[in-house]
What does this fold into?
Amino acid sequence: MIHRTPPFSATRILPAALVLALGLALAGCEDSVAVTRPAAPAAVPVTVAEVLSRPLRDWDEFTGRLEAAGNVDLRPRVGGYVERVAFADGARVKQGELLFEIDPRPLRAEVARLTAERDRARAELALARSNQARAQRLLPQSAISREEADRLATLAITAQAALEASEAALARAQLDLEFTAVRAPVDGRVSRALITAGNLVSPDSVLTTVVADARIHVYFDADEHSYLRHTAAGRAEGLRVLMGLADEDGFPHQGSVDFVDNRVDPGTGTIRVRASFDNADGRFTPGLYARVRLLGGELRDTVLIEDRAVGTDLGRRFVLVLQPDGTVGYRGVTLGAQVDGLRVVKSGLAAGETIVVNGLQRVRAGSRVEAARVSMQADGPLLRQFAAEDGQAPGGQPSHPPARRPTPADGHGPTALAATQG
It folds into this structure.
């Protein structure tokens, strides 16, 4: 018997070939995937700083206007023609300094007339007393009647009264003569002369105004919540106040509350408060706009960060906090006022945490960062003022000369002119 080899069958080897080809293809794909897998993202360079904590006092901000401690509308006490204006408009004057001179000649003549009247009254009194004395000597001898003696006594009393009246009239005329010299009633600064030489004036005429500005007052209206908070521990009088003018940065001037009104205005819910500041150098002018900060409460630790470290997300404020694994995490914060370029953080951060201060736009929560550490600056004048136990720099003077706000002429934009509150 002859055995034949079966012929080659494609149907038997095709499945095996397909399995082998599929295995090779899968192995090739795995090699390709391994080659093209992306590397981990590189760390983003940012600048970070440690959150600060400083002992500060609570405060409230208000606005007001400067007013002089005294303001006098100068009127003459006698009428007449102005003979001389004895001051320069806007000059500083001392109490008692001559400002206007009214023609004194009519009053000098009146003084002379009344002096003569007084002398005549003295002579008449002397005669009446002499007659009275003679009558008293003659009366026991019945050389004069009782009626005549009484009449002479009455004449002496009348002469005494006439003398006193003439002396009073003379004293009044002498005062009027003195009042022709119109003098400064207080130390201060005089306005312009409203009446010039040659004009006729009366006691109703305003000659000029004098402001007593050795101390300056700032009146402002405090809301009732602030008032209650600051008076919770005692009277509001004596509370420390910092002030800045419209062209100054910060609040370089220091004063104190010396008056609080006796009622809250029910229509506005505010109460009128007055703060007093020294103005011996005359740099404050009544009527100027002023910003004031009313300090109060006990010192407490306050978290501070730089404004540039704060981002905005749909109206919310946030910071990026550096994590131990080198990434950054999102943290919502509640902000307060700005102090010397630093922002008060009311909630959301704790002292000692580290946050991104530069490069906030290049990273997001979860990003790995390459952190370069810097320090936040926290030695401004307001921080020193707020932290001081007595609310003053050493010596009771402003801790630095008043800093003027930059203007466009100085090369600064208007956005640099004001410190905003979050």
Observations:
- The first strand starts at residue 44 and ends at 50.
